[in-house]
Amino acid sequence: MIIDSTRFGEVEVADDAVLTFPDGMIGLPGARYVLLAASPESPFYWLHSAEHPGIAVPVTSPWLFFADYEVRVPDEDARRLELADPGDADIFVVVRATERLEEFTVNLAGPVIVHAGARLGRQIINDTRGYAARHPLFSEVELNDVQASSPRVPVAAEAF
To answer: Which of 71, 50, 40 is CA-nearest to residue 119?
Structure first.
């Protein structure tokens, strides 16, 4: 399928790369999203709406930046995601980018949980440790020290 993007133009993605968020994303329209990456070496992805050309949020794996990050998926959320095993979940956090790298923050309080096998996603409220919605991204590691990791969820394209 082709996704029209105001950021990246037309992007071709495989049908099995589309993730369904039955309840949507907090504050965003639409229920179908794909992960886009600049390159396999990038620690960042874009969670891009397959329905709305202007909706895309940067995300990353929290453990690339916070080794001790904890997330608890409530039973109801796990049921909605069809997660029987916690190991089947890919977990991302939304990045708030700014002009200055040192001002980047991440939402550790509202991680995005994706069940790769079912292609289902859900943003949850993580009440573990009182995490902040705007936690400084580079408070524990420098960008040059971050090693990219590959999620089990298919990355739809390396489009830009």
So the answer is: 50
* Residue 80: DSSP 8-state: H
CATH of domain 2-154: 2.30.290.10
What backbone torsions phi and psi does residue 37 show, to the nearest 5 degrees? -135, 145
Query: What whole-number distance in Å separates Cα of residue 91 and Cα of residue 69?
Result: 11
How buried is 101 (Cβ within 10 angstroms: 0-12 exposed, 13-18 middle, 19+ buried)? exposed
**Separation of alpha carbons 160 and 12, rounded Å:** 12
Q: Per-domain residue ranges for the chain?
A: 2-154
Q: Which of 21-25, 56-60, 69-73, 147-151 has the lowest mean pLDDT?
A: 147-151
Residues 6+ apart with CB under 8 A from 95: 44, 57, 58, 59, 60, 104, 105, 106, 137
Strands, E, within the chain: which ranges? 2-5, 9-12, 19-20, 32-37, 44-49, 56-60, 89-96, 105-106, 112-115, 120-123, 135-136, 155-158
Structure confidence by residue, pLDDT tens digits, 34-63: 999 887 788 899 999 999 999 999 999 999
